[in-house]
């Protein structure tokens, strides 16, 4: 019997990547948990096109961000990113959207950990009680 818990599915997704993308997703996951110990991991959009592995999603009173992996980058999309202050300029994709913002990380790139943790905490605050 397989373990289909969200955490196990995300573990499997990271292991299946077996390259810099898996390592990047694992680091980002750890930073999200550091920023919000109460974060809830889910996996959405499981379909044949992604090997039924789905997309890792981190939630707290709603979606904080998703972690999609592509051939040349890892994309972290913040559901309410347009409402978040980004003083260090982490957002570098989906900048024209009215609600979302994303961070694309390519091989060899790093993310400012302190700024990322602050961004996740701001996303938690933006999703605060009563906000949908």
Q: What features would you describe in this structure?
A:
- The model has no long low-confidence stretch (mean pLDDT 90).
- It contains three helices and five strands.
- Strand 3 and strand 4 form a beta hairpin.
- The chain starts with 5 loop residues before the first helix and ends in a 6-residue tail after the last helix.
- The longest helix is centred in the N-terminal third of the chain and has 16 residues.
- Helix 1 packs antiparallel against helix 2 and helix 2 crosses helix 3.
- It has 132 residues and is of the alpha+beta class.
- It has a five-stranded antiparallel beta sheet with strand order 1-2-3-4-5.
The overall pLDDT average reads 90
Helical content class: 25-40%
- Biggest sheet features: 5 strands, antiparallel
Beta strands, count: 5
Termini separation (Å)?
36 Å
Task: Note the topology.
Elements (H helix, E strand, L loop, with lengths): L5 H12 L2 H16 L4 E5 L10 E5 L3 E7 L3 E6 L22 E6 L6 H14 L6
Antiparallel strand pairs: 1-2, 2-3, 3-4, 4-5
Helix pairs in contact: 1-2, 2-3
Structure in a nutshell:
The chain has 132 residues and is α+β, with helices and mostly antiparallel strands. It has helices at 6-17, 20-35, 113-126; strands spanning 40-44, 55-59, 63-69, 73-78, 101-106. The model has no long low-confidence stretch (mean pLDDT 90).
Can you tag this structure with a few keywords?
single chain; alpha+beta; 5-stranded antiparallel beta sheet; 5 strands
């Amino acid at each position: 019997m397989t373990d289909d818990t969200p955490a196990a599915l995300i573990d499997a997704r990271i292991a299946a990547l077996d390259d810099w993308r898996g390592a990047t997703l694992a680091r980002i996951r750890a930073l999200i948990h550091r920023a919000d110990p109460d974060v809830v991991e889910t996996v959405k959009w499981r379909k044949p096109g992604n090997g039924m592995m789905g997309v890792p999603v981190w939630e707290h009173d709603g979606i904080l961000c998703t972690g999609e992996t592509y051939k040349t980058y890892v994309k972290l999309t913040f559901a309410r990113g347009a409402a978040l202050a980004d003083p260090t300029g982490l957002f570098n994709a989906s900048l024209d959207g009215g609600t979302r913002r994303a961070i694309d990380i390519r091989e060899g790139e790093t993310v400012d950990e302190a700024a990322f943790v602050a961004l996740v905490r701001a996303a938690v605050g933006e999703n605060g009680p009563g906000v949908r």
